[in-house]
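W.,

You were right to be curious about this one. When I first looked at the sequence I had no strong expectations either way, so I just let the prediction run and decided to look at it fresh. Below is the sequence, 637 residues in total, followed by the output.
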Amino acid sequence: MAHHDELIAKDIHAYLSAQENKSFLRFITCGSVDDGKSTLIGRLLYDSKLIYEDQLASIESDSKKSGTQGDNIDLALLVDGLAAEREQGITIDVAYRFFSTDKRKFIVADTPGHEQYTRNMATGASTADVAILLIDARHGVQVQTRRHAYIASLLGIKHVVCAINKMDLMDFSEQVYKEIEKDFREFSKDLGFIDITCIPMSALDGDNVTTRSERSAWYSGPALLGYLETVDVDNDTKGAPFRLPVQWVNRPNLNFRGFSGTIASGVISIGDEVIVLPSGKRSSVKEIVTFDGKPDSAIEDQAVTLTLHDEIDVSRGDIICSKDHPAEQSDQFMAHILWMTEKELYPGRQYLLKTNNKTVLASVTRLKHKVNVNDLSLEPGATLELNEVGVCNISLSAPIAFDAYKHNRHTGSFILIDRLSHATVGMGLLDISLRRADNVVWQDLELDKTQRAALKHQKPAVLWFTGLSGSGKSTIANLVEKILYDMGRHTYILDGDNVRHGLSKDLGFTNADRVENIRRVSETAKLMTRAGLIALVAFISPFRAERQIARSLMDEGEFIEIYVNTPLEVAEARDVKGLYAKARAGKIKNFTGIDSEYQEPLNPEITLNTVDQSPAEAAQQIVTYLKNNGYLETDKI
């Protein structure tokens, strides 16, 4: 491989300067399975003489073992680097490759075509300027073609190459090409692409990849490489207001305090006035520091450290904005979410939302609808499953600074993280702030829960009873309340059956409804602690994540998890309400312990063994815990 440029020998510094100042393009290849994405990239690199000799020798050797082209070199192996990919002849992970021509520098992301790896495709598309969407000329527009086109549009890609591949297998038929072009343009007419360029090609043979092919004499458009070298993507973000998400407060010594990060959009110059969100503090830029020195200005995608003229409070996760065009702030949004894990998204369940360098608690308060990627129709749904896209309302634990994704891909995007496993479970795009976020504020009250609880001679608490149906939760909770009542304490019981007659009357017993039921009860219990009460909550509450959410709503020490540990066979033998018999007979669906999971507490404050203990003994164990841990003032006992 070589860049055959005379400057390399004559003036290496001039050559390096020329390379540095070339424009830069990120693009992805996507589409359905076996449409030739990896082969296309391999051909692009091979025909452009951008493969090192040792790489070529290695690929020639690997082609004999893992290739799919017989005795010929299999160019797809240049990007199919995983062993599993080579064994199966498919792309699984996203493969990134950098290359450069005389006119431009590129980073290409080869993304997988299989539906189960759609999340990987979305990851590659999130930073791309152009999408090359491959279509097998034999099969035309497929389901995955539509899915990838929709996701590319959703993630803000405005330029699409519809690469109609394997035209050699269709004798480069102009009619086949025009039919596929018509189908794709008809499907994508509402996706918001600025331009769609269709190119007939054979990635395997190189037709219309780097040069125009004589086999498609009827085609008058550009070859793929020519298009990539000339497509104008700079205007897509030109004029966007300045945004710098702060990644690090740089304080190497007492004389220097800077704020480091990568510019998300816009231009910043020395002397420019800025505003810091969420604090709203204002200042002006004193100095711009980069790896290369101290320039007078910096632009999008540059890593910089800014120093300011004023000593104002700036922290990691804040956003430094242009003074005249600050980002919005809100804690409630409508957003698009692409779900990326096999565990369903349940409205009401709490996740961690991370945007830029800030992380807050978040829950989906409402799934408005799902998007059918085949025809872009809107469908109702209670949950989101793997690779599904939904439009949701989201509530956050604290406001964040943001721009709508359509205006800024960096400050308008987020990921959702599972609070227990810390796995990334979804990615999302902020659409709008919900108006009620501006209208609803917390009303300060004269009395707080400490004063209310002191009047009752107790500490507020939530006794959260969890266990299988028939374990004795309600029975024990009733006995505890009687004992506390005799002591003059102030309590209230939230019982699972009773709540479903009112507060949760509209909910069923699907997993999504169970999550919402516990969310409502948790918020109600929180209000009871504000009243200074001891709330006794008796619910199966089968999922650890929801019990953890309930705990997180309370102050430290207020949440007492009580595991009523009764084996399934014992609970089923009791079957006071006859529910287990109905569940076994198939008359009740989603019954905990039978066809719906119960997740035992890992570290409960109290564990009750109702096989060896009577309900009265179990109740006394709880009251003793309350006495010993200061929830009941001894002078009242």
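Here's what jumped out at me. Residues 511-530 form the longest helix (20 residues). And, maybe more interesting for your project: DSSP finds 18 helices and 27 strands in the chain.

Coffee later to discuss?

I.
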